[in-house]
Design a protein that fits this description.
Elements lengths: L7 H16 L6 E2 H8 L13 H13 L3 E3 L9 E4 L1 H5 L3 H13 L4 H7 L9 H12 L6 E3 L11 E3 L14 H40 L3
Antiparallel strand pairs: 1-3, 2-3, 4-5
Helix pairs in contact: 1-2, 1-3, 1-5, 5-7, 6-7
Length: about 220
């Protein structure tokens, strides 16, 4: 199902609802006040925000129009409480929900970071499982995740959600088998470079010894 691109505030509100649904189910759905506090947490949030009730309420109204969130039905309380409806719209499995939630709350991240930060929501046994989940999100229609250009001086690529639209320079996540193949090629190149380096070192040592041998006859 297609949805409109979300603002940063809408992404934060939706991510906070998903997180609390999974990690603190006894306190979910959330009142407006609890949701504001969840959005403005200083831990597990990048960037840290300082949203007021009006901003959060406006985001909820927009999310409700897209059927992504809204007032919880049947809540036994005088205070209106809110819930997300991500599952109804996208039919995610637990792995996809966990990855997308952390991307919404903390921005672009590497697979290693995602694996560690999703542990309270879903325990990924292998790093390859994280990449495979990112691939599935990337292959949805419309795509919901993408891989960013590698930053200078970094070894790992970062991944971002696409709920707010395309990200400059981002590409769809390659098929895991293709990624593993490229990884294998990279490992082979690294080994070859190490072997060349070792051979150069041996050649330098041979040249040094030859020079000392020649000096004996000068």
């Amino acid at each position: 199902m297609s949805v409109d691109f979300l603002s940063d505030v809408e992404v934060r509100v939706l991510g906070a609802l998903v997180e609390k649904d999974i990690t603190t189910p006894d306190y979910y759905p959330l009142s407006l006040n609890a949701l504001v506090n969840a959005c403005n947490q200083k831990n597990n949030r990048e960037p840290v925000m300082a949203l007021g009730e009006e901003a959060v309420r406006a985001a909820l109204d927009s999310l409700q129009r897209q059927r992504l969130a809204g007032p919880a039905s049947g809540a036994d309380s005088r205070v209106t409480k809110y819930e997300h409806r991500l599952q109804e719209v996208f039919n995610f499995d637990r792995r996809e929900t966990a990855i997308l939630c952390v991307l919404m709350l903390r921005g672009a991240q590497t697979p290693g970071e995602l694996r560690g930060r999703t542990e309270r929501m879903y325990r990924f046994e292998e790093l390859e499982d994280v990449v495979a989940t990112l691939e599935r999100l990337s292959q949805r229609d419309p795509p919901l995740a993408a891989i960013l250009p590698r930053q200078p001086g970094t070894k790992e690529s970062r991944y971002a959600h696409l709920l707010s639209g395309a990200v400059e320079g981002a590409t769809l996540v390659p098929h895991v088998a293709d990624a593993e193949s490229r990884s294998g090629e990279g490992d082979r190149m690294a080994r070859l470079e190490e072997e060349v380096k070792a051979l150069r070192g041996e050649l330098t040592e041979v040249q040094r010894q030859l020079g000392e041998f020649r000096k004996q006859f000068e």
